[in-house]
Design goal:
The chain has about 350 residues and is mainly α. It has two domains: about 35-225, Up-down Bundle (Growth Hormone, Chain: A), CATH 1.20.1250; about 245-360, no CATH class. The protein has helices at about 5-20, 35-55, 60-65, 70-100, 100-120, 125-140, 145-155, 160-190, 200-220, 230-245, 245-275, 285-305, 310-335, 345-360. Helix 5 (about 100-120) runs antiparallel to helix 7 (about 145-155). It is a multi-pass membrane protein.
């Protein structure tokens, strides 16, 4: 592995460690042993669920390319996953409330395990089914688990302020530490142990199975408030009225969608951008570097948002400007200085700019 990747990873890791260690504990809240046991159980499960998701990220495009698919076909597979997540995401919350949040979490595990199994097939139709299943699983991941947590927390009579402790720890572990470790573990499986690009998906299925076993053995079922259950058409009508009555809601939705759209485009293209001629690159290690940058951005954001100035609106304008510049620079260098920035230098530049983009994605 190149020294360059170690340098980037080490530099980001040192900065993140320094920021995290500098946090003080003056606002630490005293909790009960029962709550700590409940919180730790949830964090273990959530970390396993996120590991099952993050392990797959660095190798999806690479796996499809090893099966001989071109960028167009791979793009169709990605769109299928995003599309199924979009469609299913509109109803998953309502279904989980009616059928049970615990059952929805188990469904996530089963659906994602099946999606991982399909990765063993080089058949386009089988892979397409896997992407659809993966999109459904993603919708469940980002809805059912948090809904179960909130309902169970309230049902057990814990203090409301303690809920923020569980969420903050879940974000730090699931979207930070676990994401970084998943990238490194995937790199170990594929590059160091030479187990092939399917190995991370098999490992993900194992983590998901362990998490499902814990859910089945220790979680109780909870449901949404039956008095508030409404059919989908009524819910959509209510959402449309809310958007139409306040333009800020529509603008916020557009801003979020545009930013997420740019990042999903990046997720699809970073692998071919760093290996345009199918060069060997440490996908998992690079992914771990991206996640370190994301964790750094989250840590910086929490400090900036705690200050009275700049205002959130001004702060987000700066974020969008820097994000746009980070994503635009590879295009400029490719067009105007492509002749002088080729090979390793070009890959290094893209990797630096990609890390800058993820720093802003918190």
């Amino acid at each position: 592995m190149e020294l360059f990747y170690f340098m980037v990873f080490g530099a980001l890791g040192a900065v993140v460690a320094a920021l995290e260690l500098s946090k003080n504990s003056k606002d630490r809240i005293n909790t009960s042993p029962a709550f700590n046991s409940f919180k730790n159980n949830y964090l273990v499960v959530y970390s396993l669920m996120m590991a099952g998701d993050w392990l797959q990220g660095p190798y999806v495009y690479y796996l499809y390319s090893t099966y001989g698919f071109g960028k167009g076909e791979i793009g169709q597979l990605f769109i299928a996953g995003f599309g199924s997540s979009m469609l299913f995401g509109t109803i998953v919350g309502s279904l989980a409330d009616k059928q049970g949040r615990r059952r929805a979490c188990v469904t996530y595990c089963i659906t994602y395990i099946l999606s991982c199994i399909t990765k063993h097939s080089p058949q386009y139709k089988i892979l397409m089914i896997g992407r659809v299943l993966g999109g459904i699983a993603t919708s469940l991941l980002f809805s059912a688990f948090e809904s179960w947590l909130v309902a169970e927390h309230n049902k057990r009579g814990f203090e409301q302020q303690w809920l923020s402790l569980t969420f903050s720890k879940a974000i730090f572990l699931g979207n930070g530490l676990v994401a970084i470790l998943s990238g490194l573990f995937g790199n170990l499986l594929v590059d160091s142990l030479s187990l092939g690009p399917v190995a991370p998906f098999d490992a993900a299925a194992c983590f998901l199975a362990i998490g499902m076993a814990i859910i089945l053995s220790s979680w109780t079922e909870n449901f949404g408030d039956s008095s508030e259950n409404k059919d989908l058409l009524t819910q959509f009508r209510g959402a449309a009225v809310a958007i139409a009555s306040d333009e800020k809601i529509a603008v916020l939705g557009a801003i979020q969608s545009l930013f997420e759209g740019s990042m999903y485009t990046f997720v699809f293209l970073w692998t071919p951008a760093l290996s345009p001629n199918d060069e060997e690159i440490p996908h998992g290690f690079i992914f771990a570097t991206f996640m370190l940058a994301s964790m750094l951005g989250s840590s910086l954001a929490s400090r900036l948002m705690a200050r009275s100035s700049p205002r959130v609106e001004s702060y987000m304008q700066i974020v969008f400007v820097i994000s746009s510049a980070s994503l635009l620079l590879p295009i400029i260098t490719n067009v105007f200085v492509g002749a002088s920035f080729k090979g390793e230098r070009r890959k290094h530049l893209i990797c630096w700019l990609s890390s800058a983009s993820w720093l802003l994605y918190f």
